[in-house]
Each structure stands twice: as C-alpha cells, then as structure tokens.
Predict the structure of Guanine deaminase.
Amino acid sequence: MTHTLLRGRLLTFLRAPQELGDTGSYLYESDGGLLIKDGLIVARGAYDKVSAKAPADVVAVDHRPHLIMPGFIDTHLHFPQMQVIASYAANLLEWLNTYTFPEECRFVESAHAARIATHFYDELVRHGTTTAVAYCSVHKTSADAFFAEALRRNMRMVGGKVMMDRNAPQGLLDTPQMGYDETRQIIAEWHGKGRCHVAITPRFAITSTPAQMEATQALAREFPDLHIQTHLSENHDEIKFTCELYPEAIDYTDIYARYGLLGDRTLFGHCIHLSDREADAMSETGSVAVHCPTSNLFLGSGLFPLKALARRDKSVRIGVATDIGGGSSYSMLRTMDEAYKIQQLLGERLNPLESYYHMTLGNAQSLSLADRIGTLDVGSDADIVVLNAAATPAMALKMEVVKTLPEELFLLQTMGDDRAIVETYVAGVAAKSTI
Ligand code: GUN
Ligand code: ZN
C-alpha cells in the first residue's frame, strides 16, 4: 500500500489545557509532516524530517497554510433524526412526541434507513467529524443500515439500536426480550467488524419498563467492554415524570445505578440538572456526562455547568456532542461556539484550547478510545481534519489581525462551519473531496 504524506501546521493535544497559556498541553508544528500508511499515522514531526522517511512513490498533499488536526469526535447524536432538525416545539417531551417519535417510525423500512445513512455519513465527513456515537431507531434495520455504511466507509463509529418498550407509538416499541435479543444479534453481526463498535442503548428511563432495564443490565454484564448510552437529567418535566415512574429511586441517576448502568463506559446525554449527590455518583463510577449545547439551547433545556462539574473535587468526565436532531448543527465548531456562550451565561470561561481538546482528545478519552483516535500520535488511526480559518470573506478579513494560535482557533470556532473544513481524511483517505 502506498504512503501518504500530509504537509501543514500540525496541532494535537497531550492533555486537558489548564489555561489559555498552557502551551504544554498540546504539540504544534508550524511546518509539519504526517506520514500515513495502511490507515495509520506512521510518522509525525517537522516536515523535513518526516519527508526524509517517505518512500519515493509517496502521495504528497500540501495543505499549507492550513491547520491539520485529529478528526472531530461527536459523542452523542441520533442517526434517524436528520429530518427532525428544525422542528418547532416548546420543550423536549413535546418535541419527542410531536416530531421525533413519528419520524423514527419510518426506519422500520430498510430502504429509508439506507438512504438516510448515506446522508448521515456525508454530513459527518463534510463537517470534519470522523467518529460519532449514535442512537439508531428501535428497529434492527436502522442499526444494520448504520453499520453497513460505517463499514463501507471504513469509519470508526459507535452505535446501537435503542431499546424502548413504553411511552411511545406502537411502531416504536420493542419488548424486554426483543430488545435484548436484537441487541445481541447486532453485537454478533457488527461489533468489531471493520471499525464498528456496538453500544447498549436504552433510550431513557421514561421509555423503558423496569423489565427492560433488567434486560439492559443483563447485556451490560454479558458485554462489559461495550459502551452504554442513554439520556439523563435533560429537562425539568422529564425529570419529574421519570422519578414518578421509578418511585423507589432516590433521584434520576439512581434509577440507572439500580440497574448497574453507571460506569466508565457509560455516556449520559445532557446531565444538565444533576444534584451534588448525582454528580458524586457520576464521578465515583467514572460515568461520562455528554454536553449537547445546540440541543440544550434549541429545546430550552437549560445551561450545562461544564466548568463547575469539571472542577469539583469529585470531577465528572465530560464529552461534547451535537445531539442531532435536538441539536441544530452537525458541526463541532458550531457546537463549541454554543458551549462557549453557555459558559459565558454561567459566568464561566471556556477557552479555545479547551474547546479543541474536547472535540478531539477529550472526546476520545471519554470513549476510552484515545489509543486509537483523537490525536495525531504515531500508531493512531489516520482520521484527520484540515481546517482553514480564512474560509469565508468575513473570516479572511478577521484573520488579517489574528496573531496567535488560540486567536485563530477561536475565530474558527466562532465563525466556522463546514466551509472551514478543507478536507477530512478517514483512515488516511481523503473523504470530503470525494463526497
Ligand atoms: N431523550 C430521550 N430521547 C431523546 C432524544 O431523541 N433527544 C433528546 N434530546 N433527548 C432525548
Ligand atoms: Zn439524544
């Protein structure tokens, strides 16, 4: 297999930045080279040194003056909600019942699921996202379409069929046994195939009976290495209804704890309104709170206390995500722009280094996949994004006065979208320019 050599300004994180001046938290190479072979990064460093290692038949791509970073990671979104985006609703439960549940019913049809899967991956790649963690619909057909397309594109993707057996239309319900059996089938058919990872996916406590939660617990015990994903503490009415459904639990988080679902492989979407006790439980178990800023603003769900959760003595692990289609943009740049504004409203600062850490290494760590994705380290998957901070006339004008790397990153986050994504490499192959 031929080698590929990328040239440009390299940026990759080593750890979470402590402050804007924390230059030890990242590596930056102003004239850098990345050598790629068989889908992996095999050398990284100053361009002259890396190019000296390249064979004569290397395919070289010069991306100067653009930034080369690890591909973005989106840790929570809904594959069957591409046509739910921009649905006008007062709040989460109205939005689910009026638009989202009816739309997800359509994914019983394989042809529809396959068509949307094509668009889904096109949008991820167009926006520089190379790994995403997705909810499919309740139908096995939707998970099959999701993973078939991931495999075809050789993308590292995490996903699962949602398990839901109450409080939704008939066409969207499984049973505890069916949810268990189909999840097992999907694991057998897809987990570990290509770069596919199956996640155990009870939608949320409102749509799962105690019997289904037990089935979920059984799956979690049988497959301890799999990710688990669900929703937690997004909206006040949701919290109230949930606690009424599980009166024996002391709070929302305790419901999942009672079924053994807290842990370092579990991703809890939203977590906006956690009590101290719940945050302690998340911290003690290594559970991840996934912040979905565009969704939280769009649905009016609330302001996620990202900085407060991160700086507690018992800190909570944090991921960031689009939450399409409650979320309103596929772009992780747009997502972190809204995350920044939420922290502003809370009187907190989220600096641009932190934002890019979260989109890359931070999200990889929240998935326990940092050995494979989220950095430009040698041995990592060659999932890469190339960014242009002067992608539009207005951005180019602002770039004239930008002097530092954090300023450039902040401009990209504040004004950037898919137009700022010059190229997305999936396992070393240019994927955006070939859509
Ligand atoms: N809670 C349960 N299901 C969903 C969903 O599809 N989107 C959001 N935002 N919250 C949920
Ligand atoms: Zn969600």
